[in-house]
């Protein structure tokens, strides 16, 4: 594949930020627009007559704690990677992975709580929005988990040693993004419901 | 696949010099199919776009047949389309499917992917002086997602209940309820899946274009030295990256409504005598989400054509583009305004009149940057030493169409007039001229101008001139009369007007329009022939800079390999428009500023 050649070509040019990192930031802007579209639709619906208020399930608080902690662990993992402390790095990646899975499990429990309280999907528009918005965020966390699994596999593959920190930094930035996005969504849903 | 195969020969000839520099042990698969070379990906986009354009154009010919000859039957149509044209007459359901697919194919698959996919891929690395895109891998994925979207959309043409038929805007409830029409069934599902793939493709592309332009310019290539093509492609990518996700969120809600029983867009609906339980939804909500993409989308289509025309007009006028910074500023202004005018598609939805007037104001503001661009093109042409190459003719044709179509935009942007003209042929005429045909002209201009760089050969000029003159005259003959039809109230999307005595006066005109449409379509096939013929048999390019152009793509070898420049990437010392300066015809961007060179132009 020409890509390794090409990135060498990239290096010879002047650069402030690595192109892949920049691409990720633009991509994050794009994802934000998708959620902005959904939350705007939510606000429009909120102002119509037949809106029903709802209580956020308790499990969302547990998941918030999980994802906040995972942001911390991935930050430390990145730091460990840069200092070549590979053992520490590996365990921190595993910790992030576990916390990420916990987050998704708690979200699912939260939805089950909804379901039991007589608000399944299709019952009323207010909570249907919640299913879509929170579900879509969950899908993005799941995407992040796939990336973490790849990092995890790479970290334990001793045959190829790479000290290129870009993939780790990219994963970490993305992970912080889904974390911040969740905090934003949580505050949004608490304020406007 | 066949596209890649046909491209094989084109590069084999005369590209050996470039190949010595870059040996990746390329196989047929990595070079022509899963290529990561931006130039090959561009050609893949272009050829796929051409195939779609033939299909989409053919659809318009078939439904024009119905509109022009509503009383006649065509037995061969039944042979071709089976039960959709039983007795040689199109079924109304299939007419709607054709109209819907014509719009979808041309707006998304041809003028978005085929136009900006081709030229952003081809020109960005070459004109900014980069060896490839920031991420060649994502770039390859972008094409293959487009290919996947194409395959799914193509498959939807052959399902038993027919492709989607609710219009390219897929408004609910027609698109949300499978029972609403035959095209709302599996055809609609395939449409949504295909468009989701398409959105992924255009996002991956857009991310790459933006990063590459901001991050990978060669030494000396400051933003203000960029050719206008790159500026236009940059803002196109920004528009796409910010607006397509909103369409995706609208489509996700639609998928939930279709398949999971939610009511985001549905309320109080009775279908075939059955009352649906859906309550509390709003169909208008979809229109807001759709047009928040939909309006930027028309600029996604138009801006690349503007950028390429600017470049081609300047090169072939042998004069610097008039008002470079004003051109950049006006593209920027158009990009901003594109996000603030979506509700002018919704004046008749019961929009608050005060809100409507805000959107009228913002819409009419677009006339300002548009007029700046038009006058700059005209002043570039003014007293120039014009070379009427086929590319130049199409670029001038673009300006002509942009003026004619833009002026009717001022009519439609006024809500008071729009109430009368909404959903009439006036709208059809307006957007076909200003967005459809004009952008096609930009695309043709680009193909004629950069074909020598793409394939190392020229297109045939005689065929090109026939193509140009028939197309420009034909386009005006088709769409100009539609303004009159629209003003007298003739609604769009109708299958048959013969039941209304007030529209009988247009019977002859409809027939005339259909006839011209067929001729224009036939001439497009001539272009397609010219394209593929010249790829193998065209006159070979012998001069690495055949148009005497300043931009960097002409500093590469005639058939550049992967990596574009065999040696060092050239350094840039000046802007892209130093034509007719200090008595020199042109001074390429990589030529250092001489000691005695005058400062101003």
Mean pLDDT of chain A: 86
Give the tally of β-strands of chain B.
4
Query: Looking at this structure, what is the CATH superfamily of chain B?
Result: Cytochrome c oxidase-like, subunit I domain
Overall pLDDT score of chain B: 92
Distance between the termini of chain B: 49 Å
Query: What is the alpha-carbon Rg of chain B in Å?
Result: 24 Å
Assembly form of the protein: heterodimer
State the CATH class of the domain at 57-191 in chain A.
Mainly Alpha
> Which spans of chain B of ≥5 residues are poorly predicted at pLDDT below 50?
1-22
Main sheet properties of chain B: 2 strands, antiparallel
Which architecture of chain B would the CATH scheme give at its second level? Up-down Bundle
- Helix proportion range of chain A: over 70%
Shape of chain B: globular
CATH fold group of the domain at 57-191 in chain A: Four Helix Bundle (Hemerythrin (Met), subunit A)
Order of helices and strands of chain A: HHHHHH
Short recap of the structure:
The complex is a heterodimer of chains A (193) and B (601). Chain A is mostly helical and 193 residues long.
Task: Give a structural overview.
The complex is a heterodimer of chains A (193) and B (601). Chain A is mainly α and 193 residues long. In chain A, 78% of the residues lie in helices and 0% in strands. Chain A is built from 6 helices and no strands. The model of chain A is unreliable at 1-14 (pLDDT under 50). Chain B has helices at 2-12, 16-19, 28-33, 38-68, 75-81, 92-128, 136-156, 186-215, 228-259, 283-317, 324-338, 353-365, 367-381, 390-413, 415-421, 425-455, 461-487, 507-537, and strands at residues 270-271, 274-275, 579-581, 584-586. The chains are: A mainly alpha (193), B mainly alpha (601). Chains A and B meet through helix 1, helix 2 and helix 5 of A and helix 7, helix 8, helix 9 and helix 10 of B.
Write the layout of secondary structure elements.
The complex is a heterodimer of chains A (about 190) and B (about 600).
Chain A: H1 3-11, H2 19-46, H3 59-82, H4 86-116, H5 125-156, H6 166-191
Chain B: H1 2-12, H2 16-19, H3 28-33, H4 38-68, H5 75-81, H6 92-128, H7 136-156, H8 186-215, H9 228-259, E1 270-271, E2 274-275, H10 283-317, H11 324-338, H12 353-365, H13 367-381, H14 390-413, H15 415-421, H16 425-455, H17 461-487, H18 507-537, E3 579-581, E4 584-586
Helix pairs in contact in B: 4-6, 4-7, 4-18, 6-7, 6-8, 6-9, 6-10, 6-16, 7-8, 8-9, 9-10, 9-11, 10-11, 10-14, 10-16, 11-13, 13-14, 14-16, 14-17, 16-17, 17-18
């Amino acid at each position: 594949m020409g890509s390794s050649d090409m990135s060498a070509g990239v290096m010879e040019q002047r650069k402030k930020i690595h192109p892949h990192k920049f691409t990720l930031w633009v991509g994050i802007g794009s994802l934000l627009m998708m959620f902005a579209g959904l939350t705007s639709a939510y606000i429009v619906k909120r102002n119509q007559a037949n809106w029903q208020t709802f209580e956020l399930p308790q499990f969302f608080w547990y998941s918030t704690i999980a994802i906040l902690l995972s942001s911390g662990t991935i930050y430390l993992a990145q730091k460990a990677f840069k200092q070549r402390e590979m053992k520490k790095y590996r365990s921190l990646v595993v910790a992030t992975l576990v916390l990420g899975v916990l987050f998704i499990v708690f979200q699912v429990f939260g939805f089950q709580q909804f379901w039991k309280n007589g608000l399944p999907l299709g019952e009323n528009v207010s909570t249907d929005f919640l299913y879509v918005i929170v579900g879509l965020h969950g899908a993005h966390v799941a995407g992040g988990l796939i990336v973490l699994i790849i990092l995890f596999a790479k970290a334990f593959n001793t045959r190829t040693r790479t000290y290129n920190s870009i993939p780790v930094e990219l994963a970490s930035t993305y992970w912080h993004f889904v974390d911040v996005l969740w905090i934003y969504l949580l505050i949004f849903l608490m304020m406007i419901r | 696949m066949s596209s890649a195969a046909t491209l094989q020969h084109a590069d084999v000839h005369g590209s050996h010099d470039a190949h010595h520099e870059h040996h990746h042990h390329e196989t047929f698969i990595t070079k022509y199919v899963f290529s990561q070379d931006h130039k090959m990906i561009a050609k893949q986009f272009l050829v796929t776009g051409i195939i779609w354009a033939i299909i989409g154009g053919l659809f318009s010919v078939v439904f024009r047949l119905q509109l022009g000859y509503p009383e006649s039957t065509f037995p061969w149509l039944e042979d071709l389309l089976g039960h959709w044209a039983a007795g040689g007459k199109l079924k109304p359901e299939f007419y709607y499917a054709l109209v819907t697919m014509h719009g979808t194919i041309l707006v998304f698959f041809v003028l978005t992917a085929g136009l900006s996919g081709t030229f952003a891929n081809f020109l960005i690395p070459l004109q900014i002086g980069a060896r490839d895109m920031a991420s060649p891998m994502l770039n390859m994925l972008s094409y293959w997602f487009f290919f996947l979207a194409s395959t799914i959309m193509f498959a939807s043409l052959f399902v038993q209940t027919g492709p989607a038929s609710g219009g390219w805007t897929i408004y609910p409830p027609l698109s949300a309820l499978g029972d609403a029409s035959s095209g709302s069934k599996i055809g609609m599902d395939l449409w949504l899946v295909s468009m989701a793939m398409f959105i992924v493709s255009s996002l991956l592309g857009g991310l790459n274009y933006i990063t590459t332009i901001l991050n990978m310019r060669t030494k000396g290539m400051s933003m203000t030295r960029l050719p206008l093509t790159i500026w236009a492609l940059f803002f196109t990518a920004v528009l796409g990256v910010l607006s397509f996700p909103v369409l995706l969120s609208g489509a996700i809600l639609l998928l939930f409504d279709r398949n999971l029983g939610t009511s985001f867009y549905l309320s109080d609906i009775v279908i075939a005598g059955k009352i649906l339980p859906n309550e509390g939804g709003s169909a208008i909500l979809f229109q807001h989400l759709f047009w928040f993409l939909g309006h930027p989308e028309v600029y996604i289509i138009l801006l690349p054509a503007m950028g390429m025309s600017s470049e081609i007009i300047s090169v072939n006028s042998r004069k610097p583009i008039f008002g470079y910074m004003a051109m950049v500023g006006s593209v920027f202004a158009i990009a901003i305004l594109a996000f603030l005018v979506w509700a002018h598609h919704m004046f008749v939805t019961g929009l608050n009149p005060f809100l409507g007037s805000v959107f009228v104001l913002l819409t009419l503001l677009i006339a300002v940057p548009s007029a700046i661009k038009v006058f700059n093109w005209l002043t570039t042409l003014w007293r120039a030493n014009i070379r009427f190459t086929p590319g130049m003719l199409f670029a001038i044709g673009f300006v002509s169409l942009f003026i004619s179509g833009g002026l009717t935009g001022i009519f439609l942007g006024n809500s008071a007039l729009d109430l009368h003209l909404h959903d009439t042929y006036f709208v059809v005429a307006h957007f076909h001229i200003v967005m459809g045909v004009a952008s096609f002209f930009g695309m043709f201009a680009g193909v004629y101008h950069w074909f020598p760089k793409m394939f190392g050969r020229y297109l045939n000029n005689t065929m090109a001139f026939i193509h140009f003159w028939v197309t420009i005259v034909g386009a005006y003959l088709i769409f100009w009369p539609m303004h009159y039809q629209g003003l007298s109230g003739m609604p769009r999307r109708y299958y048959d007007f013969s039941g209304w005595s007030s529209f009988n006066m247009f019977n002859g005109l409809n027939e005339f329009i259909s006839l011209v449409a067929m001729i224009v379509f036939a001439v497009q096939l001539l272009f397609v022939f010219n394209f593929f013929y010249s790829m193998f048999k065209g006159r070979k390019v012998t001069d690495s800079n055949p148009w005497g152009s300043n931009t960097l793509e002409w500093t590469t070898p005639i058939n550049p390999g992967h990596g574009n420049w065999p040696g060092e990437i050239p350094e840039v010392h000046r802007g892209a428009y130093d034509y007719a300066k200090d008595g020199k015809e042109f001074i390429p961007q990589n030529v250092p500023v001489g000691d005695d060179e005058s400062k101003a132009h």
